[in-house]
Amino acid sequence: MPAWVGHAPAQLDQSARYFPAVGMLVGFCCALVLWLTALALPLTLAIALSMLAGIMLTGAFHEDGLSDFADGMGGGYTREKILAIMKDSRAGSYGVIALVLVLLLKHQSLLAMGNAHPLTFVAAALISAHTISRLLAVSIMLTQRYVRDGDEAKAKPAAQSLSPGSFVVTLLTGAAAVALLFVAGASASQFLLALSCALLLRAYLARMMYRNIGGYTGDCLGAVQQITEAGFYLGLLLPW
User: Fold this and answer.
1) Which range (22-26, 138-142, 206-210) has the least confidence?
2) Angstrom distance (rounded) from CA 138 to CA 16
3) Euclidean distance between CA atoms 52 and 219, whole angstroms
4) If 0-12 CB within 10 Å is exposed, 13-18 middle and 19+ buried, where does residue 92 land?
5) How many CB atoms neighbour CB 129 within 10 A?
6) How far is residue 215's CA from residue 198's CA, in Å, rounded to a whole number?
7) What is the rounded end-to-end Cα distance, in angstroms, of the chain?
8) CA–CA separation, 22 and 20 (whole Å)
9) Please, are residues 123 and 233 in contact by the beta-carbon 8 Å criterion?
10) What is the pLDDT of residue 14?
11) Is residue 233 helix, strand or coil?
12) How many whole angstroms separate alpha carbon 159 and alpha carbon 5?
């Protein structure tokens, strides 16, 4: 962001309403890379390059959160230990395994989608999944409390709360992404299955967070985004 943009806590909290819109922009860039590279390369490589584009755009921000989340939940047995592990910048075995498997799931799901549908469908799926997954991550901010205080935070400043009014904005952004998916040829059943898979994963992760640390951290939001994105792709592939 430009240096003149304010970063006061209230401004940061207000910015959370635009996270799904950022996801839509990232998804669009990934879809554009997919479309252009598929003109000259096999689909499997085009998909890999589109995923790489998304990672480069975000600086692996969400992937890092997934890795830390898996390490904390897998290696910690108390709330304090889980939070300490998640704050540690080193990657452990749980984090590496989670990251590899989620990236592999996303790649193979998109490849299977590309073999069964036109490239426009895969491009729309990328945009929709990036948007919906961030909407679901933001929804955690509405239902749970931020559990790091003061110097405990891994990186500051950060958005820590979301108002109901702001959440309406995220829902409208999500609706726009869904409309794009229908324009690309998705059926209602495909969308419902995709959304159901993403929502079930969101509910499971939210329960895990609440039970183990009593709320969420930034790493938790990154994990929700990555896992529900993969779940959305898988849901689009399920037969009805």
Assistant:
1) 138-142
2) 7
3) 20
4) middle
5) 29
6) 20
7) 44
8) 5
9) no
10) 73
11) helix
12) 15
Rounded to 10°, the helix 61-75/218-237 angle is 100
Does 123 have pLDDT greater than 70? yes
Kindly state the tokens that stand for 151: 């110097």
Cα 204 to Cα 142, 187, 198: the distances in Å are 16, 26, 10
| pLDDT of 122 strictly over 60 | yes
Q: Does 127 have pLDDT greater than 60?
A: yes
The set of residues, in sequence order, having a beta carbon less than 8 Å from that of 64 and lying 6+ positions away, is: 219, 222
Predicted confidence band at 163 (pLDDT cuts at 50, 70, 90)?
Answer: confident
The distance between the two most distant Cα atoms of the chain, rounded to a whole number of Å, is 51
Q: Looking at residue 156, what is its pLDDT?
A: 45
Q: What are phi and psi of 22, to 5 degrees?
A: -60, -40
**80 is written with which tokens?**
């304090």
Assign 150 to helix, strand or coil. Answer: helix
The overall average pLDDT reported for the chain is 90
Tell me if 71 sits within 8 A of 86, measured CB to CB: yes
Residue with tokens 């990036």: 130
What span, in angstroms and rounded, lies between the C-alpha atoms of 7 and 62? 20
Q: Is the dihedral of CA 138, 139, 142, 146 positive or negative?
A: negative
* pLDDT tens string 80-102: 999 999 998 888 999 999 999 99
**Quick check: helix, strand or coil at residue 214?**
coil
Helix (H), strand (E) at residue 62: helix 61-75
